[in-house]
Amino acid sequence: MNILDRIIVDKKEEVKEKKELIPVKKLEKSIWFETMPVSMSHYIKREDKSGVIAEIKRRSPSKGDINKYISVEEISIGYMQAGASALSVLTDQKYFGGTNDDLITARKFNYCPILRKEFIVDEYQIIEAKSIGADCILLIASVLDPKTIKKFTAFAHDLGLEVLLEVHDKEELTSNLESDADLFGVNNRNLKTFDVNLENSVELLSFIPDGKVKIAESGIDRPEDLVYLKNNGFDGFLIGERFMRYSRPHYEAAKFLAKVKELENVYPTNA
């Protein structure tokens, strides 16, 4: 059983237990059910923003602890001040060290789109995402079949949430072109082996439908990588570990994005 398989087995058991402890009716009483979500796709495309979805992640199955003791308040505010377009918050505790409280904290201190980075296997988690203040959810094509992705996407839209559909190869992408997802993300990290290949994004870009917001995920280690992907046609860039491995992730994000601006003045985008 690979890492992803283990995560999904554990996640299904976790959701089963949560359903018994916190019924849907209680989730629906959250103040966030009365709040209009912020559009992730709109913010990513804003010309005054960087397109970066800056992630808060304490650890990962492949790297272990990355930045265990953090202030979500300080980092989330700092990311947005650095010029990020949106936030991504890991809420899986067992494998990534995150909690729902991390996202609630980020929501409390920021008016910006927030992606709930989670392994979604049940509609309950989509309601839960809304209840903790998320604006966008992640659906992973290597976890869910196309029929379920389409169903979950429609369910999320009914709640006012946007959907980032994550794919890893051409088969996953072409099988889900009718999913109605708002954003298509190409993950350069193989979730079965956790190996990274940046060119994966570029190779799949042409298969993403026009009109969809295109996101490159994982492996963006240098400002030059972001500019390269942007010049190839990507709108957004999910960056987590690259910032989180520093003691002050938001300071590193500010330096990274300043360098991106310098490079864009030298090598303007094709747009």
Descriptive account of the structure:
There is one protein chain. The protein starts with a helix and ends in a 5-residue tail after the last helix. It is 42% helix and 16% strand. α4 (72-82) packs parallel to α12 (249-266). The radius of gyration is 17 Å and the shape is globular. α8 links the parallel β7 and β8. The protein is an alpha/beta fold and 271 residues long. The model has no long low-confidence stretch (mean pLDDT 94). Keywords: Amino-acid biosynthesis, Aromatic amino acid biosynthesis, Decarboxylase, Lyase, Tryptophan biosynthesis.
Structural descriptors:
12 helices, two-stranded antiparallel ribbon, single chain, alpha/beta, about 270 residues
Task: State the separation between the terminal residues, measured CA to CA.
Answer: 44 Å
* Sheet with the most strands: spatial strand order: 1-4-5-6-7-8-9-10
**Helical element count?**
12
Sheet with most strands = 8 strands, parallel, barrel
Return the string of H and E elements.
HHHEEEHEHEHEHEHEHEHEHH
**Which residues sit in consecutive blocks of at least 5 with pLDDT less than 50?**
none
Level of helix content? 40-55%
Mean pLDDT: 94
Multimer state: single chain
Q: What is the number of beta strands?
A: 10
Topology, please?
Elements: H1 3-21, H2 24-27, H3 40-45, E1 52-56, E2 59-60, E3 64-65, H4 72-82, E4 86-90, H5 100-109, E5 114-117, H6 123-131, E6 136-140, H7 146-158, E7 162-167, H8 170-174, E8 183-187, H9 199-205, E9 213-217, H10 223-231, E10 236-239, H11 241-244, H12 249-266
Parallel strand pairs: 1-4, 1-10, 4-5, 5-6, 6-7, 7-8, 8-9, 9-10
Antiparallel strand pairs: 2-3
